[in-house]
C-alpha cells in the first residue's frame, strides 16, 4: 500500500479539467461549474480543443498548451482517449488524476479490460495516481475543491467519506446538506483501478482535517491490505464501514454497478 502522490489529490496547487464543456447538462459542464465556483484558490485550467473559454476561464486545446503544470487532472472524455491523456499528463509532471469516464469495467467487454491496462501502464512510469474510473469525483470542501459532478457542494466538516458508489455518495451529500453535516473529504473510487480503500485509509489516518472515516464498500480486492490499513487507521480515529451485498439481491446490485462480485458480508 502507498500514499505516494496522494498529496496531489488532497492538496493540489493547480487543477486541469480535461473534457470541460459549455453544453448545458453535460458532465463536462457540471464539472466546470463545480470546479470554478467552489472557491479553489489556485488556477483551474479547462482543456477543450473546440472552445475558447469555459464559463469564465480561458480554455486550452491540449495538455501541452497549459501555462502551468497541474498537480491534479480531472478527466471526462471518451475512454479510448484516456491512456494517451494519462501519458501526456504524466510526462508534463501531473501526479494525480480523477477519471470520471466509464468504459473500463467488465461490462465494457475485452475493450474495457484493455483500456484499463493501458491506462495503468501509461501512469506507471510517472507514478501518477488514478482515482476511478467510473466515479462521481472528489470533493474537499475546506480546500474549495469540488472535482465532481454532484449537484451540491457540501459544507466543510470533520468526516471523510470514501465510497465505491457515486449514487450513494450523492445521496449522502444531499442528506448531510439537509442535516447541516459537513465533510473533510469525499472520495468516490468507482472501479478502483489504482487508488483503493487501503491507500485512502492510510492517508486519512494521518489527515489532521479528518476526525472520523466512513466507508461505503461493495467489494474488497485486497483483503490483507485493507485490514492492515483499517487496523492502523482505527487506532487514531473511528472507522465506520457500511458493507453492501449482505443479501443475494444486494450482491447482484453491487455486481451490476462495479462489475466486481461483492465480497462476503460475513468475511
Describe the fold and architecture.
It is a single chain. This protein is α/β, with parallel strands linked by helices and 267 residues long. The chain folds into 2 domains: 7-131, Rossmann fold (3-Layer(aba) Sandwich), CATH 3.40.50.720; 137-258, Rossmann fold. The protein has 8 helices and 13 strands. It has helices at 7-10, 27-37, 82-92, 110-123, 166-179, 197-205, 223-236, 248-258, and strands at residues 15-18, 44-47, 53-54, 57-58, 72-75, 96-99, 129-131, 137-140, 145-148, 156-163, 183-188, 212-217, 239-243. The strands form 3 sheets. Strands 9-8-11-10-12-13 form a 6-stranded mixed β-sheet, with helices on both faces. A 5-stranded parallel β-sheet has the order 2-1-5-6-7, with helices on both faces. It is globular. The relative contact order is 0.12.
